[in-house]
Amino acid sequence: MLNASPISDELASALRNRRYPALGVFLPAGLTSSRTERRTLDVLSRQGADVIEVGIPVADPVLDGPVITAAYRRGLDRGTTLPDVLRTVEYAASKGPVVVMAYWETAAQYGPARLARELKAAGASGVMIADLPAAQASTWNRAVADAALSAPRLVPRDTRQKQLFPLCTAASGWLYAPAAHSRTGYQGPVDVEALAEFTQRLRSVSSLPVVSGVGISTPELAQHIAPLVDGVVIGTPVVRALASGNRHEAEVLVSGFAAALRPATDGTVDG
C-alpha cells in the first residue's frame, strides 16, 4: 500500500482525523458579485461545509453538466479572471481547507508552475485538475510539489487495476471516486455496491483518503455512501440554488447534507 506524501499531510489529515466523513461543497468562482460570494462562503461554512471546492471558470468544462457549465459561463461573462479566483480562494481559506477544481486549459494558459504557486499563496490546500492529460501529469505533479500543494486526483470508475498504482502514486491529499458514470448534476440511481467495490480497490493501493461526488444528489444518498468514504462532495444542487438567487435554499441543502453525514447520536459539526 502506498503512503501519502509529506505535502499531502495537511489536506489528508483534515479528512482522516474525523468521526464521520467530511462534507465538501463546490462553489464556482465569479457566479455572483464578490460581496455576495463572501456572504455565501460564510453561510456554507456555518451550515457544515468542512472543505470548500472553488471552481475556476472555463468555457468548455467537459466533465460538468448543464448547471455547472452555465455557472462557469456566467462567471466568464462577468469577466472573472485568475486574480478574482485568488481572492475567492483567499477568503474561503479563512473558513477552512480549500481545494481548487480546475481544467488543464487553465493550467496551460497560465503555466502550471505559476498557477500552483499563486493558488498556494492565496491559501489553497490542494488543486485537482479534473481532466489532467497523462502526457502532462509529470509536469503538473512537479509544479504542485514545488508549490507544496496537494494534488487530489479524480480516478475514473473504469480504471483498470494495473493503472491504479501509477495514478494513485502521483496523487496526494485525496482520491476522488465518482459515484456515478456521468457528468456532474446526475440525478439518477447510483450503484452503491459498485462504488463500494471501487473504493476498496483504491484503498488496496493507496493510504490516501477517498472522497466521492458526482451523482450524490440527496442527503439520503449521501447517508448511504458515507460508510464507504472519507468525504462527500456536493455541487450541482447548491450551485443551482445560488444561480437562481436562493441562498436560503443553498443553506438548507448544505445543512441537510451535513446532518446526513453525522452519526445519528452526534449533533455537532467537526471543526
Taken in chain order, the helices and strands follow as: HEHEHHEHHEHEHEHEHEHH
Number of domains: 1
User: Main sheet?
Assistant: 8 strands, parallel
Judging by the overall fold, what is the CATH architecture?
Alpha-Beta Barrel
Question: What is the tally of beta strands?
Answer: 8
Task: Tell me what portion of residues adopts beta-strand conformation.
Answer: 5-15%
In CATH, the topology is named TIM Barrel
CATH superfamily: Aldolase class I
Runs with pLDDT <50, length 5+? 2-8
CATH class: Alpha Beta
Mean pLDDT: 91
* Classification by helices and strands: alpha/beta
Distance from first to last alpha carbon: 29 Å
Give the helix level as a range of percent.
40-55%
Shape descriptor: globular
Topology:
Blueprint: H1 9-16, E1 22-28, H2 34-46, E2 51-55, H3 66-77, H4 82-93, E3 98-102, H5 104-110, H6 112-122, E4 126-129, H7 137-146, E5 153-154, H8 161-170, E6 175-178, H9 192-205, E7 210-213, H10 219-225, E8 231-234, H11 236-243, H12 247-261
Parallel strand pairs: 1-2, 1-8, 2-3, 3-4, 5-6, 6-7, 7-8
Describe it:
- This protein has 271 residues and is an alpha/beta fold.
- The chain has a single domain, classed as Aldolase class I (TIM Barrel, Alpha-Beta Barrel).
- Helices cover 47% and strands 13% of the residues.
- It contains 12 helices and 8 strands.
- An 8-stranded parallel sheet has the order 4-3-2-1-8-7-6-5, with helices on both faces.
- Helix 9 links the parallel strand 6 and strand 7.
- Helix 2 runs parallel beside helix 4, helix 10 packs parallel to helix 12 and helix 11 runs antiparallel to helix 12.
- It is globular, with a radius of gyration of 17 Å.
- The N terminus is likely disordered.
